[in-house]
Amino acid sequence: MSKKHNQARRLAAAVLALTLAVGSPAYAAETSAEGSSAAAADTASQRFSDVSAEHWAIKHITKLSALGIIEGYERREYRPENSVTQQEVVVMALRMMGLESEVQKNKAETVLPVAVSDYAKPYIAYAFDKGLILPSEEVEATPAKATWGTKEATREWVAKLVIRAIGKEQLAEDLEGESSSFNDAEDNSEWAGGYINAAVSLKIVQGFEDGGFKPQGKVTRAQMATFLSRADKEMVSRPKNIVTGYVLELTDRKLKLLNANEETVEYTVSSDTVVYNAKDDSRIALSNIKLTNEVYLVVKGNAVSYMELTNEEQKLETFEGTLSKLYLDQMMVSLQQGNQDTLYKLAENVAVTDSEGRGLSLSSVVPGTIVELKRNTLLKEENISLIVVKQLPISKTAEGTILSIEADKGTISFQENASGLPENYGISLQTSVKTADGAASDITKLRVGDNVTYEIKDNALMNITIRKQADYGQSVQATMTSLNEDKTILTVSKSGEGLGAYYIADNVAVTIDGLQNASLYDLESGDELKLELLNDKVVGITVTSRSIKQYIYASIIGYDADTKALMINSEAGVGAFKLTENTSIRYQGSKIDLSQFQTVFIGSSTSSNSRKSRVDLKVSKDKVVSIENTQYVDGTITQLTNNSNIANDLTIRTAGGQNLTFKVNNGTPVEVEGKTTATLGDLKVGDLVRVTPTFAQDYVTKISSLKSGVYKVLLTNATSREVQGKDASGKTVKFTIENDDKIYNPGQASHTFSQIGIDEYITATIVGTKVDSVTIQNAQRGKVTGVDAAAGTVTLQAFGGAVQVVNVGTGASVKQGAAVIGTLGSVKPNDRVEIRKDESGKYVIELASVSKRTVSGYDSVLKQMVFKAGTNNEKTNYNLFTKAYLHKGSETVAAGSFKADEEVNVYVIDDKIFELEK
């Protein structure tokens, strides 16, 4: 491309030299839209009569009108759908490049290689001279008798011209060989691909909804204005009436700007000044422009006709605190931040506003006012240039909940019950703390989540009275010493602290690795424990020093009834263990006493002929925790023959590593989750199965698929006891829970089918088509008020106001939608979350997505909240979470109370509204 370009430019220079020598008639200005040879910028408030304020290109038309790049016809018409000619495009491009005055210097008569209107001749000659257009390309592309200048410009031709205008021809060369994203790329001219790709990559041009670019299509006046407006940011040269810089001062009449040359310049603004936001092309109010924002201006003299907010970031350093004293004679303020006061110097022209940007007088800022002092980092001086009044001094007594305590900063925040809003105050030496009975206390006794009464005097926190302390969770490592007879007090020894005792909660959860549904009876003196405490009461016990070893399908080779010593032979070899009065003994599902063990399991002798059956047992150290005759064996299929006329061999590998082989007849029943009828052909190596052997334990009577996972409940049917759930991959499954004995509800006295709620999570083990066991997760949901990543805790304010500390551990994963986005450190205060466990028992924290939406209404038939369509094609209809929190402040409201045009915060998890906040 570059070689061809250089050759063409040399040709252009030769042609121009010839035309200047020959001469040409003088050109005259026309009265068309681009006809004026030196158009002055009209005020940007000019409205063309045929371009409405809602027109998709209004911003770009307004901008180019202010710049004087485009003009209107009679009757103030712009005619946005009219097509543009090639000569009009060249004129507009050169004006956008700020070359109008350069063009007009060339008054010599010119003979051009193409035919154009008289007014356009100097523009076209200049464009040939600068290589914006090339004779070799334009003459070849134009029929002999056609008028080149009045030919309608095509979209690909405009893309080429604009890319050359902004000096990005090298980019077009680099992208020439890249495949096109448009479905009509075969319609491109041979030379056009690189230019179109470059224009698309710079977001100057776009395609159509049908996926095409329409390279041979015409370009409308609205489109041309948009192309040049978008290309403006890439222009090497610009019109002189464009100014960029940072706002140093802004009123409704005056703008002080630090320009690109680091000069301070003043301009006037008025009601005629139009303001747009560059990020989304939206019209905004002048009040949206803040101190030190980066802006783009179109000016006429010293008046701003068009303004664009190009970067919302404020170049300000902020100091927040309570004003202690104002020294007007010295232009200084003393600011209380935590427990110390700091002096700040004020600029002579310091501005004072409220939080909404409304101007205030400096004398109105009195001691006790909560303020933000802002220093402009663009300037070399360190004086405060802006004071924002956040809150005037208040005196009140209120009730609320403690949201956070930052002792290092000397601050405490409350959520006031009456308003539901957070408030932040500094802790000082004069702040007193009392318990509910009036006894003196101190700050260290306060907890996040405490319900308190607090007294404020001139913004100073005077008194805090604890009305009800919050639940407080912590973890303790200790060694078990003893458990009292009624299992209500646990005595432990803690390293370096001696003995300690804790009350045990009624529904304490006991965990011992390898032992399902462990209880307090399974604890032993000397066990190393991890205790989970809630308000100093034990709610969870995990044994960390030992685990339960499981032996599957073992043979009894000896038993001494006097010493209760049992010898077995298993895949792991011969072992000897002791039965105790606490050993759980079952035969064919029925519980039997220790005294019956020999009769039932051994018979009259210990010979192999008298052995009744294989056994499964769980052992802790040398003691048998439980033993029962083998009812079934769980394992992974490692071998399966499938012969039509003979018995098949099935080999499974147990979790303990045993390889067991059974005979399977072709007619043996097979149950597979998700299938109504299944055969041996539905099984394959690698499947996890449960095998039910015959009494003789050589043949198999049934094979069932075995699956354990976490499911989100979608539907329940109390009559059929059927649950429909969704697994981690999004697959929907159905299963039946035969009875309540298969349900486990941690921490609850009862466990019934009715406790399985829609949108809740359960951990289920499914054997075949039936559930073997279900654990209700009781996920926790609410607003995060604090995170301690090092300790692995999240402080959560649940829906309804209760605050608790959740110990999720340092290995918790954080998800949003289907993606894992980080670890606990990525969770922030005010996030809305759902905390649950995955298949491995690790905590998962699901972050809700949040957006601000406008209500359309509530569909009471479909039970859906409906929102008005936004600018990004967002979803408009949402189902509500079963326990969705709908509220205004701390007041819970009904779904039907949300009315059309209300602004709301919408929190969504798994495509359902989790929280809706007025």
UniProtKB/TrEMBL annotation:
Q: Which organism is this entry from?
A: Paenibacillus mucilaginosus 3016
For this UniProt entry, which segments traverse the membrane?
none
The signal peptide stretch is 1-28
| Residues covered by the SLH domain | 44-107, 179-242
UniProt superkingdom: Bacteria
| Name of one Pfam family that matches | SLH
Q: Which UniProt keywords apply?
A: Signal
The answer to whether UniProt assigns keyword Transit peptide to this entry is no
Question: What is this protein identified as?
Answer: S-layer domain-containing protein
Classification via InterPro entries = Cell_Envelope_Struct_Comp, SLH_dom
